[in-house]
Amino acid sequence: MPTSQPTQTAEVARLLAKCQRVVALTGAGISVESGIPDFRSKGGLWTRFPPDQYATIQAFMDDPEKVWQMLAEMEKVLDRAKPNPGHLALSRLEKLGVVEGIITQNIDGLHQEAGSKTVVEFHGSHRTLGCQWCGKGYGSDEFDGTETPPLCSCGKVLKPDVVFFGEAIPTRAMNDANSLASGCRVMLVVGTSAEVVPASQMPMLAKRNGATVVEVNVERTLLTDSVTDHFLQGKAGVVLTDLANEIAKLL
Ligand code: NAD
């Protein structure tokens, strides 16, 4: 069973400062404080556009115009979002030599905007688009948002380079994530429900290779009573900032 909170931030800070080689696995929860809803936020984007109807590759191939109704709204939310203290704390921990890299399930690019250098975008990025038919690639900044859906020069509807449900993880991201997860000494799992495979398997992979698993979440998840060694309950922005401040004092 993971230990309880009050003594924990200090204890986890000591562990991270000592072990270094920390890899973070982040999910939608870390970007909630930047105004991007996760799949659980009530009344948000995903209530109106259920992921099973708008975020599967089959839905996109069947009716890309329909899926672009959701994508266009999501783009507006992503364009407004800025890194929050949680993203900044992870970037600071990388600069301090404690965090080795981040495996993120998010497509929002906020870790890089916060200054993190080693970021594996496990589910791709919304910043580029590709044509499923002719293979041509585009930057999302080549479109101003008025052209929905954005079209390829061949006339087909473009797809953002994000991994839809039912699509394989890009080989390079899979390899990079496996190598980070299997080589780390601590895996810091932040703001993920751990319900989406194969990303949800990264903490198990880390643990099998001897890592300690620290989880930061506002609520308990599938991992909490099985894989997690230390559960820090709270908002990522608050918990990670406290953790980074404690670690900085120890180095
Ligand atoms: P999820 O929506 O299934 O779970 C989010 C988790 O974050 C929950 O466990 C929730 O309790 C927790 N959480 C919410 N607010 C938090 C906060 N302030 N601090 C800490 N924890 C908080 O998300 P998931 O596990 O990442 O899986 C969903 C899939 O959807 C992923 O594949 C992801 O790529 C995609 N997604 C991405 C974004 C994004 O890019 N920002 C947003 C929504 C969904």
Descriptive account of the structure:
- The chain contains ten helices and nine strands.
- Strand 2, helix 7 and strand 3 form a beta-alpha-beta unit.
- The protein has two domains: about 160 residues, TPP-binding domain (Rossmann fold, 3-Layer(aba) Sandwich), CATH 3.40.50.1220; about 80 residues, 2-Layer Sandwich (SIR2/SIRT2 'Small Domain'), CATH 3.30.1600.
- The model has no long low-confidence stretch (mean pLDDT about 95).
- With about 250 residues, the protein is of the alpha/beta class.
- The strands form two sheets. The chain has a six-stranded parallel sheet, sandwiched between helices.
- Bound molecules: nicotinamide-adenine-dinucleotide (NAD).
- Nicotinamide-adenine-dinucleotide binds next to strand 8.
